[in-house]
Design brief:
This protein has three helices and two strands. The protein has 76 residues and is mainly α.
Length: 76
């Protein structure tokens, strides 16, 4: 995430994860890293991570299964 990027951090994080999905670094069906991991590696709060995940769900890039985690969505 760029320090001079004027966009909110959750959008930057969502775009970073979205690019990883688009480039195949995170494959369909793969578990998305945990909130604590994303918080630590990106230096953001839990709320920022949750907002980014919500945005990725809205974009159809991930699916969240309660009690299991969030996974990269299968592509048609």
């Amino acid at each position: 995430m760029a320090p001079l990027d004027p966009r909110p951090l959750y959008e930057q994080l969502a775009d970073t994860l979205g690019e990883q999905i688009e480039h195949g670094e995170l494959a369909p069906g793969q578990l998305i890293p945990s909130e604590p991991y994303l918080m630590g590696t990106h230096g953001v709060s839990r709320g920022t991570v949750r907002a980014a995940m919500r945005l990725l769900r809205d974009r159809g890039l991930i699916v969240t299964l309660p009690g299991k985690g969030s996974f990269v969505a299968e592509r048609p």
